[in-house]
């Protein structure tokens, strides 16, 4: 009888062991795209494919509206309830890493060596996040307008100089055919100001912060190059070349298409719908204001929370999601720039010779990340206000000095944002 009991116990123990050995580990993922049906369909397809491809892990998704997403992550981090996998806007990543929300990806950086620089979330020498796409800004123009105004078509190798750019804007105004020479998107008072306009400041030779030390904005945001940018920036508005900060969002949305603006400073995400309405649209590189042509880089990226108990599983999902076929799927559905050249070749728009291939070239050649520092989340807000105030007529030097003081005070308040 004892033998029978022992045998039964052994069978039960063995069965329990087998169940544990083959158990599926649940992984949670948060995403910022609630309400975006197209984007959501692709994300859910990737998750479904991953879950079916193996039996070790099962990913479940919770989506949030983009406007409330960052706040939800911060609240969850404070409560110790972060998911395993989360996505984040590239420039926000350093703050989340510094704050202890994230852990470095347990994936060698070489795994992503073919990815565009802007898609790699590197902070303090470590890779924390990786993006499936990037975004780029270009100067939208009509070929017919360029011809009528007698303008040279700029190229990546030979972009417009500041003088050529200003000549183009003044020629457009003098023609009398447009409400304004260019639409800069001033109605979009969000991260757009830093993403779209900070590169102008950088091309002038200024910047938001000393990028060698990240310890001060002094002499960078308020130096002579920055003041030169500020004076030029203000002139665009005083000379009525662009709509001001009170621009109607609807005018920004359709103004170039409707012929109200000769040019538009706009992103690749609006290119497809513009091509459908403007048959001779072309996408031109950023002007060179003296220190090279520059545009913004880094979009939404995937990372692993610091509290995840299964980082190896989360890493397996991220590697799975960053296959070329999924990079191409996002690009085809949303018009985004594929993270790799090989994925671009799988798309109609971004393949060599495709109508949007120019944006891949712009992203590879001109894109520069916003300052890779935890303090950027504050610095961006400071720059947004300074750019708007200068556009509205505020004194350039005083405004940039004040912005510099605010940034330096934040850095000091946070003990230099030293790594924990």
CATH superfamily of the largest domain: Periplasmic binding protein-like II
Specify the biggest β-sheet.
7 strands, mixed
What is the name of the CATH class of the largest domain?
A: Alpha Beta
Q: What is the domain total for the residues?
A: 2
- Portion of residues in beta strands equals 15-25%
Distance between the termini: 62 Å
CATH architecture heading of the largest domain: 3-Layer(aba) Sandwich
- Give the rounded overall mean pLDDT: 94
State the helix count.
16
CATH topology of the largest domain: D-Maltodextrin-Binding Protein, domain 2
Radius of gyration: 25 Å
Classify the secondary structure makeup into a structural class: alpha/beta
Helicity, as a percent range: 40-55%
Stretches where pLDDT is under 50 for at least 5 consecutive residues are 1-20
Form type: globular
Number of strands: 15
Note down, in words, how this protein is organized.
The chain is α/β, with parallel strands linked by helices. It has 2 domains: 21-132 and 299-354, D-Maltodextrin-Binding Protein, domain 2, CATH 3.40.190; 137-295 and 375-417, D-Maltodextrin-Binding Protein, domain 2 (3-Layer(aba) Sandwich), CATH 3.40.190.10. The protein has helices spanning 2-21, 37-53, 66-79, 93-98, 143-148, 162-175, 192-204, 224-238, 249-254, 271-277, 311-321, 324-334, 341-344, 357-366, 376-391, 396-413; strands spanning 25-31, 57-63, 85-89, 102-103, 120-123, 126-130, 133-134, 137-142, 180-183, 261-267, 281-284, 295-297, 300-305, 337-338, 367-369. Strands 1, 2, 3, 4, 5, 6 and 13 form a 7-stranded mixed sheet that branches. It has a 4-stranded mixed sheet with strand order 9-10-8-11. It has a two-stranded antiparallel sheet with strand order 7-14. Helix 15 packs antiparallel against helix 16 (396-413). The radius of gyration is 25 Å and the shape is globular. This is Sugar-binding protein. It comes from Thioclava dalianensis. Residues 1-23 form the signal peptide. Belongs to the bacterial solute-binding protein 1 family.
């Amino acid at each position: 009888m004892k033998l029978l009991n022992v045998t039964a116990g052994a069978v039960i123990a063995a069965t329990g062991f087998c169940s544990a050995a083959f158990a599926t580990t649940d992984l949670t993922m948060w995403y910022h795209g609630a309400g975006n049906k197209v984007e959501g369909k692709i994300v859910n397809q990737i998750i479904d494919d991953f879950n079916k491809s193996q039996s070790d892990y099962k990913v479940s998704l919770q989506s949030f509206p983009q406007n409330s997403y960052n706040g939800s992550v911060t609240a969850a981090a404070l409560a110790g309830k972060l998911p395993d996998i989360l996505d984040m806007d590239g420039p926000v990543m350093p703050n989340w890493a510094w704050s202890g929300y994230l852990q470095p990806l347990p994936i060698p950086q070489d795994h992503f060596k073919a990815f565009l620089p802007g898609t790699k979330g590197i902070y303090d020498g470590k890779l924390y996040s990786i993006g499936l796409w990037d975004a780029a800004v270009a100067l939208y123009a009509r070929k017919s307008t360029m011809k009528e105004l007698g303008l040279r078509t700029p190229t990546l190798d030979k972009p417009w100089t500041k003088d050529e750019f200003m000549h183009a804007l003044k020629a457009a105004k003098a023609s009398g055919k447009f409400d304004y020479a260019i639409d800069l998107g001033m109605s979009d008072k969000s991260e757009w100001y830093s993403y779209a306009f900070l590169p102008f400041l950088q091309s002038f030779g200024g910047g938001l912060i000393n990028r060698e030390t990240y310890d001060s904005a002094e002499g960078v945001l308020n130096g002579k190059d920055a003041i030169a940018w500020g004076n030029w920036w203000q002139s665009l508005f005083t000379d009525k070349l662009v709509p001001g900060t009170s621009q109607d969002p609807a005018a920004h949305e359709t103004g170039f298409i409707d012929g109200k603006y000769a040019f538009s400073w706009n992103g690749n995400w609006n290119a497809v719908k513009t091509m459908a309405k403007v048959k001779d649209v072309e996408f031109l590189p950023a002007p060179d204001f003296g220190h090279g042509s520059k545009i913004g880089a880094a979009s939404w990226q995937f990372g692993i929370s610091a509290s995840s108990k299964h980082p190896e599983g989360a890493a397996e999902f991220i590697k799975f999601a960053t296959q070329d076929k999924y990079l191409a799927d996002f690009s085809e559905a949303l018009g985004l720039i594929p993270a790799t050249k090989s994925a671009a070749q799988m798309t109609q728009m971004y393949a060599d010779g495709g109508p949007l291939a120019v944006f891949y070239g712009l992203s590879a050649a001109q894109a520069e990340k916003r300052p890779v520092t935890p303090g950027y989340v504050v610095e961006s807000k400071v720059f947004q206000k300074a750019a708007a105030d200068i556009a509205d007529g505020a004194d350039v030097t005083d405004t940039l000095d004040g912005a510099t003081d605010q940034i330096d005070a934040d850095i000091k308040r946070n003990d230099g944002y030293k790594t924990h």
